[in-house]
Design a protein that fits this description.
The structure is a homodimer of 217-residue chains. With 217 residues, chain A is an alpha+beta fold. Helix content of chain A is 17%, strand content 31%. Chain A binds a DNA duplex (30 and 30 nucleotides) through helix 3.
Chain lengths: 217, 217
DNA sequence: CTTGACACCGAACAGGTGTTCATATTATAA
DNA sequence: TTATAATATGAACACCTGTTCGGTGTCAAG
């Protein structure tokens, strides 16, 4: 039998590693020291602990000291191993033509959420998504059923696409925002349509539009 | 304030759920009752336990009784509840106005790819994505820079949104497809625009559009 | 008002859980 | 061989952890 090199895992350590892996996929959380011991036929918890520390040294897992089930396989760490990462975005109530977008408190019920890979959308904390109802925003090339991902924002800078509540018309609209003299120009995204000019007092900015997703079927 | 319906989650329960989720992705294992309590400002462990049981009842969690960190989010269970996996979709070359969409072999380069959660798009194998160049498809409410996810398809059924190469005009367009008498009606998605009628011989269907994503900034 | 369901609190308990220690056994190198 | 490090053992310990229990307050139905 060939001699063991420094980097080789013992039979036991391999068994422990395998058990942790299968336990993790089976239960969703890591096993305790004693559970490991029982699984690989080790009577003493200290032996398990010893081997766990050995495995940590060799980089096969991470261990949170003095913490029950404080194990983690290095191969499962999101930050490493080229994982892209996803942002979870809660779905708020729909945008309804003729009503302002209500967010904040109303964002509670939702277990509804969508997830987007971070290469599509830079991660940010308080993003939320809205489902568009009605055809009131065709001028922004957004139609019924589309999902709009937004970041809450009370004010807008020139050139940003925002959701605005127009108090004089009682409607929510998606437009590009521009200061122009004393007024505000709201420019539709669809270049075949004309902009509208309104007084700043009637414009309530709801948030900035970051992404639009349309499911065809 | 309106009365809470049966299915509504309490503010606390929502906070607990969120904390478990973030803790899980952060550490790889679930939090303890006390860790949850501290995170959501609950002084008594029994209250946390109470709310956890409530969340279990409503199907948001699984719980292993009398087991430390014996929690699991139902949404993380692979076998159950329509696992929210992700589909990797390669980015083919851009759609250029005036050229047919070339796919097939060219889709190999895929360093570029996007990933979408399966709740946005049912998983399918040979999907591909295209980045739209030019403003030739505004009639489909698709503009420059948009990403179009498609499934390859040589023929179309009535009502499907497809990418079509029009041989007589030398252009690619996104339209709803309808047989109409001996001709084909290509209906823009934007209802303010008129359809065009063409002979079947000049229409080459490239694929069916499943999803459109627009990144604003 | 009374009742019961619901949400919450604080304290205490029993068992779970990682660690430590003294010691024994085995492997590797001199 | 002998020495040194690596590995294994079992018991004891201190803290962690989920549960239980008596009690408080709120709200809607009877």
């Amino acid at each position: 039998m060939p001699r063991k090199k420094k980097k080789t895992l013992t039979k036991r350590q391999k068994a422990i590693l395998d058990f942790i892996r299968s336990f993790l996929t089976e239960n969703g959380f890591p096993p305790t020291v004693r559970e490991i011991g029982e699984a690989v036929s080790i009577s003493s918890t200290s032996v398990v602990s010893y081997n766990l520390n050995r495995l940590v040294e060799r980089g096969h897992l991470l261990r949170e000291k003095e913490l029950s089930r404080g194990l983690r396989l290095t191969s499962d760490i999101p930050s490493l191993s080229s994982r892209v990462g996803f942002t979870r975005i809660p779905m708020a109530g729909p945008i309804v033509a003729g009503e302002p977008v209500e967010i904040g408190e109303s964002v509670f019920d939702e277990e509804d959420a969508i997830e987007l890979s971070n290469d599509l959308l830079a991660h940010h904390d308080d993003l939320f998504a809205l489902k568009v109802r009605g055809d009131s925003m065709i001028d922004a090339m957004v139609s019924d059923g589309d999902i709009v991902v937004m970041r809450p924002q009370k004010e807008a800078r020139d050139g940003e696409m925002i959701a605005a509540w127009l108090t004089d018309r009682d409607e929510t609209t998606l437009k590009y925002f521009y200061h122009e003299g004393g007024r505000i120009r709201l420019q539709p995204a669809n270049p075949t349509m004309d902009p509208i000019f309104v007084d700043p007092s009637v414009v309530q900015v709801q948030g900035k539009v970051l992404l639009v997703v349309r499911q065809i079927n």
